[in-house]
């Protein structure tokens, strides 16, 4: 696996392998072990052309725990702001012998474009492109679900909110269906659901939150992605919360042990009430912690450190 651009086309065995591999990195993610030398001597460049808190920082931390050298390109202060093309920026970073680009971009397909044009020894990981794909987020979400629920096959999972503009939802739906979840529901206003969603994604569509979360094991909330709403109907925040905001009362129709997830950033009082976001069923911060182990697994896989063995740990490093 040289690049990690999308979950489309990856087999169940591939996804399970990544989840198992990430289990092996949990000790490092939790700092029981400080570092491993799997990517020592490698240079990893974070190219974030769009804002990020969780993804950028966990990729940086993951690279450092793998002992790589990390470059964080600040797009606002880089020569991109002076009109340098994306390809010229890549060529210059390749001249510094970068081994991996981690790319976030507002344009769908940007990571694929970079992967097509980069040097043969370089790997590309998609850290979110437009409304297309956010594959490492999809995998850390699957990791979190497996930690709490074990087997995927009998689960009922509801994804609530702005699916139309969500790359996270696309990656989650692909991963859930590949891992054998038969009951995947999306719950949203008609204006925030992609055309032909049921046929295209193999999901069931609901427009009523209470009915949609009935008996589910997992509720995944999404925010309104206003930065990708170009012109169409945009609901007011108050109106949206009134109809689709997750409150303790609405969550009551889900299974008693249902977990609540959110990729972040949360807009409190818009897609969910703070009592749910901070409540006992919320695993939102666990998702963030798990992102570190999952990204270590994916980076090491792409960079060629295929045979990770905990005996290779290098706790003394640094
Ligand atoms: N989930 C996610 O992608 O968050 P950031 O935008 O903060 O990276």
TrEMBL record:
Pfam families recorded for this chain?
OTCace, OTCace_N
Q: In which pathway does it act?
A: Pyrimidine metabolism; UMP biosynthesis via de novo pathway; (S)-dihydroorotate from bicarbonate: step 2/3
User: Which reaction is this enzyme known to catalyze?
Assistant: carbamoyl phosphate + L-aspartate = N-carbamoyl-L-aspartate + phosphate + H(+)
Q: Domain Aspartate/ornithine carbamoyltransferase carbamoyl-P binding, which positions?
A: 2-147
- Binding residues for carbamoyl phosphate, per the UniProt record? 54-55, 104, 134, 137, 264-265
Q: InterPro entries in the record, alphabetically?
A: Asp/Orn_carbamoyltranf_P-bd, Asp/Orn_carbamoylTrfase, Asp/Orn_carbamoylTrfase_sf, Asp_carbamoyltransf, Asp_carbamoyltransf_Asp/Orn-bd
Binding positions (L-aspartate): 82, 167, 223
Lineage top rank: taxon: Bacteria
Which GO cellular component does the record give, naming just one?
cytosol
**Can you tell me which family this protein belongs to?**
Belongs to the aspartate/ornithine carbamoyltransferase superfamily. ATCase family.
Q: Which NCBIfam families match?
A: asp_carb_tr (TIGR00670), PRK00856.1 (NF002032)
The record's annotation in PANTHER family points to: ASPARTATE CARBAMOYLTRANSFERASE, ORNITHINE CARBAMOYLTRANSFERASE, MITOCHONDRIAL
This protein is called: Aspartate carbamoyltransferase
Q: Which organism is it from?
A: Thiospirillum jenense
């Amino acid at each position: 696996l040289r690049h990690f651009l999308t979950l489309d086309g990856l087999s169940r065995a591939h996804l399970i392998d990544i989840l198992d591999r990430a289990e092996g990195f949990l000790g490092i993610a939790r700092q029981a072990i400080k570092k491993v030398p799997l990517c020592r001597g490698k240079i990893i460049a974070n190219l974030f052309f769009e804002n990020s808190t969780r993804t950028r920082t966990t990729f940086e931390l993951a690279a450092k725990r793998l002992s790589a050298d990390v470059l964080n390109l600040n797009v606002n202060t880089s020569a991109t702001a002076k009109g340098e093309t994306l390809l010229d920026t890549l060529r210059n970073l390749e001249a510094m012998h970068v081994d991996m680009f981690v790319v976030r971009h507002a344009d769908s397909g940007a990571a694929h474009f970079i992967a097509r044009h980069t040097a043969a020894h370089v790997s590309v990981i998609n850290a979110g492109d437009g409304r297309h794909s956010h594959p490492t987020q999809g995998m850390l979400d699957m990791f979190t679900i497996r930690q709490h629920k074990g087997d995927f096959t009998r689960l009922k999972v509801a994804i609530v909110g702005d699916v139309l503009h969500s790359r996270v939802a696309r990656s989650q739906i692909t991963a859930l269906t590949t891992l054998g979840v038969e009951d995947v529901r999306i719950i949203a206003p008609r204006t925030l659901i992609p055309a032909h969603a049921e046929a295209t994604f193999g999901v069931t569509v609901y427009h009523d939150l209470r009915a949609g979360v009935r008996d589910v094991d997992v509720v995944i909330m999404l925010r309104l992605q206003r930065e990708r709403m170009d012109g169409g109907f945009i609901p007011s925040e108050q109106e949206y919360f009134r109809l689709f905001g997750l409150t303790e009362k609405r969550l009551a129709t889900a299974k008693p042990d249902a977990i609540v997830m959110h990729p972040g950033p949360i807009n409190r009082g818009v897609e969910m009430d703070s009592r749910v976001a901070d409540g006992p069923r919320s695993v939102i911060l666990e998702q963030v912690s798990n992102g570190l182990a999952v990204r270590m697994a994916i980076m090491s896989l792409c960079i060629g450190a295929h045979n990770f063995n905990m005996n290779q740990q290098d706790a003394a490093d640094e």
